[in-house]
Request: fold
Amino acid sequence: MSQPKLQRQSDRRDDILEAAGRCFVRSGFHQTSMQEICAEAGMSAGNLYRYFPSKEAIISAIAERDRAELAQDFARADLSQGLFAVIEGMMRHHFSVRPVEEVLLCTEVMAEARHNPEIARISRSFDTDVRKWLLDMFRAAAEQGDIPKDADFERAVDMLMLIADGMWWRRALDPNVKADTMIPVFMDVARHLLRSRSQDARAAGGNSQ
Reply:
């Protein structure tokens, strides 16, 4: 297949994903029909099904696109700036700069994961990737001396992902939320979670005497 034709197909897939995303945000995943997506994308059902056989396939492609974008964010992370500067930059981009429509689409997919096993599988796979990328970044930061090597990386990742999910939902539900005002608090929590466990143990021992 020629390169121009491959590019046209890739562009058409992107157009469908954008159209489907608008439909999911407007009507919800469950309420959106493939016919509605066809109308939004300006194409026939037969043509759309050549690219995506189901709504689940569309969600899978959206998740893969988002996963690839986030993977690039982690790959580009410049730890020479310091770990916490990198984390703050990512938080500001994903929780303040990204359009609210992208936030709404993500939460729509997360909500549907409660009822749809295939979408639940996709969401779990995405979370597994993010968790690995965070752990790898924390370990690399510890090697260069940004954070203690005995910090509890596993617990820190679990808690930071929970907080990030909560911020994502809050932005989706409350149009008046100001994510910028919460980022400094998030950073304080991140620094606390990535502290030395041995220092905590010594402090606890001193307090018990």
About this structure: The first helix runs from residue 3 to 27. The CA atoms of residues 12 and 184 lie 40 Å apart. The chain has two domains: 1-53, 59-208.
